[in-house]
Amino acid sequence: MGSCGTVGPVRARYLVFFQYLGTDFNGVAAVRGNHRAVGVQNFLEEAAKRLNSVEPIRFTVSSRTDAGVHALSNAAHLDICRRSGLPPYSPEVVTQALNTHLKHRDIRVLKAFRVPNDFHARRAATSRTYLYRLATGCSWPHQLPVFEQNVCWALQTKCLDMAAMQEAAQHLVGTHDFSAFQSAGSPTTNPVRTLQRVSVSSGPASPFVLPQESRKLQFWTLEFESRSFLYRQVRRMTAVLVAVGQGILTPTQVKAILESQDPLGKYQTRVAPARGLFLKSVLYDFGPTS
Asked: In this structure, are residues 240 and 268 in contact, taking their beta carbons and an 8 Å threshold?
């Protein structure tokens, strides 16, 4: 354990997993000094004030997500310094306190763990998985159930060529320079990433589709797994794979786009809408202490 300041209080570090529906947020990161925009982190840190830490609590988020992007499970670490003589909170108390005092119903803390004081939620992650949801058979956006409109990309296409998409996806697997799929504004200078897995599948069916509509609408899921991703890499890869599914591109052209390392090409500049993207999981290879 580390100390908070010079003497007295003891710092305890926690790893928390949390989920959110991203529609109302300007991304996960805290927005400072702009009252019209707000991030998920703003609400988490506001709730954390009720833990009465001697020092202000700041969340270090593992995976940054853009405005409108959702998370089934994101992660962050935080330090809590209690007054001298008070034991650290249990992870269960931290989880319950954050959920009790969160002021937005679209955020939920899943679980907390005690971790070493040198643990870093972003750098220690060994794997991140993103999921993208698509719907086909929508001649007009309003044909999608209202419950689905902010959580998937509705395509006017009646169907997608899944076999071609799967073939194209395999060109992306492995270690490559992904410059062609990186949007401007990326903080990293190294565009090389290792994509461990890409999958394309039909379904599952939506429980919100009425029986008379079920024959028209079909849902699709894309998943991407890597230790880290470039800025908007997943949404740009999704847009290219959708173009393959629609017959606009061939799998071989996807390979050529990747090898071009050109982010300004005709097809790779397309970005899939944020609303269909979910951060599915962030994994670590350590044993947290309860």
From this structure: yes
pLDDT one-digit tens code per residue, 210-254: 887 767 899 999 999 999 999 999 999 999 999 999 999 999 999
What is the distance between the alpha carbons of residues 183 and 117, in angstroms, rounded to a whole number? 34
Please tell me the distance from the alpha carbon of residue 139 to that of residue 159, in angstroms, as a whole number: 12
Q: In the annotation, is 66 catalytic?
A: yes
Cβ-based neighbour number of residue 189 at 10 Å: 5
User: In the chain, which ranges are E strands?
Assistant: 2-3, 10-20, 60-61, 70-81, 107-115, 127-136, 153-154, 174-177, 192-202, 218-226, 277-283
- For the chain, the straight-line distance linking the first and the last C-alpha, in angstroms and rounded, comes to 14
Residue among 66, 177, 262, 285 flagged as catalytic: 66
Q: What is the model's pTM?
A: 0.92
124 phi and psi, to 5 degrees?
-85, -10
* Residue whose C-alpha is closest to residue 40's, from 71, 81, 79: 71
